[in-house]
Amino acid sequence: MVDHATAAATSPAPAAPVRAKMVQASKIYTDPAGAPKRVLDRIDLSLAEREFLSIVGPSGCGKSTVLRLLSGLTPVSEGRVVVGGEEITGPPKGVGFMFQRDTLLPWATVSQNISIALELNGTPPAERKGRIAELLQLLGLSQFGDYLPAHISGGMRQRAALGRLLAYGPELYLMDEPFGALDAMTKMTMGRELLRIWSGHEKSVVFVTHDIEEAVSLSDRVIVMEGPPGRIRSEYHIDLPRPRDLREVRKMPEFRDYCDRIWSDIGYSG
Amino acid sequence: MTTKTPSKTGRRVRLWVDRTALFVAAVLIWQGLSGTVINTFWISSPVLVAERLWQLAVSGALVWHASATVWQALLGLLLGMVVGVVVGLALHVLPRLAEAADPYIMGLYSLPRIALAPLFILYFGIGLLSKVMMAFSFVVFIFLLNTMQGLREVDQDQIDMMRSMRASRLYIARKLQLPSMLPWLFSAARISVGLALIGSVLGELLGANRGLGWYIEHASGRLDTTGLFAGLAALMVVAVLLNQVVNILERWAMPVR
Ligand SMILES: Nc1ncnc2c1ncn2[C@@H]1O[C@H](COP(=O)(O)OP(=O)(O)O)[C@@H](O)[C@H]1O
Ligand SMILES: [Mg+2]
């Protein structure tokens, strides 16, 4: 098992076509004192179609910045970001972003919040209602379409945010600790839903988390970052069977093995 | 501990009973003091004031004066709102200009507006316009500052969420920035109603031939305390009504929250 779980950049290139990549990408911010601060240092990263990639690393190492560069929300300082075969200068088509905070509009109902994504991706008005109902059903929110975000639980809010992301229908999902604020049980449920949706639609995902077990249980590949300045320290191909049951997979010795190696890689010796 | 929660209507009724009781108590105390402890010349009396208000209402003078005051205040409020919001938007889009202009804006904002009165009378005469400008000068900064603050406080993650879905600037303004700003605009409006009235009345005190401010000034000149209190009472009613209008608009524009 350990043999084909190579933890190196020497691993064979993914066979599937490239969905997105970063080439020698750096980000330099100005710190409060006005001095330039290198937050990402020449990142090379390639994401295959249909790949589920997670990024872990200590807080402040630049994980969110990687997602912001891939989403086109923040421009690179050096290097290139390519999404869907084209170098990007702003938010490209077919990319959806999910934040740790739900970012639902507080004055709009769950349905209205989801509707925003449908307006923005050009879904004809006549089809929106049906699509919203479908998504609410899928996420177990059917009863709550007319609720305001303030009147539902944190887990439901994050599910509604996931619904909005699904409604937008991106090819590439960028998720920044999307379940980080949820309790362990809700986190597991959300992870299961995400996997189900992902395996059904075969989209690509970049999933940032500080939860190593979550990363291993969900992903095809886990990248470990270090920093600042943010660099890729190592990567792990997670060779666990799919479809995965998130609870069963955690009982496998290989799973424990991956987690242990990533833990010690990050520098934690228990 | 929640076994005896009074119903919502029950609480409302009780509130209004309490308010009426307070009002009646205050009026009774006033009436009691008047002519006994304090000479009626100084504090008039509720009965006299009520009589005077009635006379003014019947003769049409009340509407004549109140409408001038309200109209000037509303025009000033509207003008201040439009100019304040537009300039606030412009300064938000041009942060460099905003930074450069900041001390001057704060300087003008801190200027005692009454010091502008001679200038306004010189420019705009003692008619409607000088009062409108007086009200405007009170209101415009409130809207300007609240607009800028409201725009600054829009959640950056929500802007990014919309940007990541390739929303246009106009879409973000319409669907996110404007609704986020509404509480700021309404809080500006609530403060501004009172300030616009102050501006309007101040303008009347300094030179006019009409309006509640003029009526009060006129009454004071003739040592007519009953007229003075009648004018003040009318002003209070006007202020309460205008505030009520803002509350209704607010509930209509932001039904939830
Ligand atoms: N807009 C910004 N301006 C200046 N520095 C920033 C900005 N955004 C992030 N940083 C800095 O970049 C580093 C990486 O941040 P981030 O990507 O959020 O890390 P992570 O998501 O891994 O916790 C941090 O040191 C942070 O302070
Ligand atoms: Mg982060």
Give a nutshell description of this structure:
The complex is a heterodimer of chains A (270) and B (257). Chain A is an alpha/beta fold. Chain A has helices at 63-71, 110-120, 125-138, 154-168, 184-201, 212-218, 246-249, 253-266, and strands at 18-30, 36-48, 52-56, 78-83, 86-87, 95-98, 172-176, 204-208, 221-226, 231-237.
Describe this structure in words.
The complex is a heterodimer of chains A (270) and B (257). Residues 1-12 of chain A have low confidence and may be disordered. Chain A has helices at residues 63-71, 110-120, 125-138, 154-168, 184-201, 212-218, 246-249, 253-266; strands at 18-30, 36-48, 52-56, 78-83, 86-87, 95-98, 172-176, 204-208, 221-226, 231-237. Chain A has eight helices and ten strands. In chain A, the strands form two sheets. Chain A has a six-stranded mixed sheet with strand order 6-7-8-3-9-10, sandwiched between helices. In chain A, 40% of the residues are buried. Chain A has a domain at 1-87 and 204-270: Rossmann fold. Chain A has 270 residues and is an alpha/beta fold. In chain A, strand 9 (221-226) and strand 10 form a beta hairpin. By secondary structure, chain B is mostly helical. Chain B has one domain (43-253): MetI-like fold (Orthogonal Bundle), CATH 1.10.3720. Helices cover 82% and strands 0% of the residues of chain B. Chain B is built from eleven helices and no strands. The radius of gyration of chain B is 23 Å and the shape is flat. The model of chain B has no long low-confidence stretch (mean pLDDT 92). The A-B interface holds A 71-73, 91, 93, 95-97, 99, 101, 103, 105-107, 116-117, 120-121, 148, 168, 174 and B 155, 157-158, 160-167, 171, 175-176, 179, 254, 256-257. Bound molecules: adenosine-5'-diphosphate and magnesium ion. The site of magnesium ion (MG) has 3 residues of chain A, from helix 1.
